[in-house]
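Work through this protein:
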Amino acid sequence: MVVLLVQCNSSTNDSSSSNASGQYSADDVSKGQALAANYCQTCHKLPDPSLLSKATWERHVLPIMGIYLGIPSAAPASLVNSPDINKDYIPVTPVMDAEKWKQIVAYYVTKSPAHMPTVNRAEPIHQLPFFKIEPAAAEWVGPRALTSYVKIDESVSPHRLIVFDGLDNKLIILNDKAQKLNAFNLNYAIVNMLFKNNRIITTVIGPNLQANDFKYGNITDIDIDKKGVVSSKGKALFEGLNRPLSVDIADLNHDGKQDYLITQFGKMAGKLSWFEKSGDKIEEHVLRNKPGSLKTIFDYSNKLGPDIWALFGQGDEGIFLYTNDGKGNFAEKKVLSFPPSYGSISFDLVDFNGDGFKDIIYACGDNADYSQILKPYHGVYIYLNDGKNNFTQKYFYPIRGCNKVIAKDFDGDGDPDIAAISEYPGHKTQWEAFVYLENKGNLNFQAYTLPNGTPFARGMTMDAGDIDGDGKTDLLLGAGFAAMDPGDPPKQPLFIVLKNISGKANKK
């Protein structure tokens, strides 16, 4: 969630390329390649020129990179003075001289493609199996939609739906038939909820969802009664957080007390930390002092104490494993690393090949940055575990602008299927907004999408769970929409429900 409601248009940055590459000598290009290897991977994985088009490098990404390297000639003054630029992170002394910067530019502009390659895939079947589509009521349909959070709440009976409208900062509570129980306007935006030990702990990102380095976020206990009435149980548990995205609770140092693991995405600043509470005192233990922390998963296979898996999606993108020594000390291992243009956004641990070891399902596609072009490497990946937490890519399905992935046994046949959404589909491939991949075995998947005309043009968030208590896993899709492309519908619902009608209860 860097910037929302920004639609990537393949013609915006990729329609034409600069002729400036002809002004660079072969010596400039060669030296630039060596300089890029030396400088450009001090903050993130070294990006290959082929990851972006020539015009995108030259007009958008390189000027921003130059600004944060302290090179005044890298970008026009209007960009340098833009409020989007955090001047606290511009070095007083340039990291390199203008000549070296020119050579780095020469390398990327000369070696990058004029246009990104097209995606080679068959179009999915436009007849979604196993699900009945239930659009939201007219009350929740409008010209813009921005759903920051959706949840199928199975902690109560009957189950209910929770939706947060990120435009109006409105918390909406619905019953198991998607009928409104209550709605409340709040000052700040909720992006996650933790349902644990009869508690509902909300993650509040701040007053809006746009990228910033303000510390307006908090973690707060709330209560929602059976009528959908929301009340707070007290003051915030944690305040002054830098755009937090999630919290989880476990005893991390084996002292018999519950600790809090909090992701703070931030923008230029952010971190992943766990907080130890003792009475009124709080001690913070920073695991990684870098922005972009998106999601964490506790791994209880370590008898000494829960390990932590974490996804980072800003700058130095990757999946990290933090191994617990039982005393709250963690050893960090970078399990997978991705270039910054990937836009890492979602992951989970799922055993896909039945060998007893958890594999990684990963999605990338956050395209709300300085390279808003359709990227053929965005989509869903599966990395198989060798049993020692070494992972090898074995599957990829391209979905431009992929925004979340969930792997569950939706059809009840005993193996994990995949649901994925995209916030930035191409205007000619609107079906990318939702893709269902039915597992056929041996990492073969049949792709399906929503029938033509289904009111779901762009996907912001998603949850899976049993809405009506029939033992089948349903889906709740949250939209992020504003009409921008040719053929866009004038209105869209805030959410839609995909009711599972597979006829089989899901195997646990």
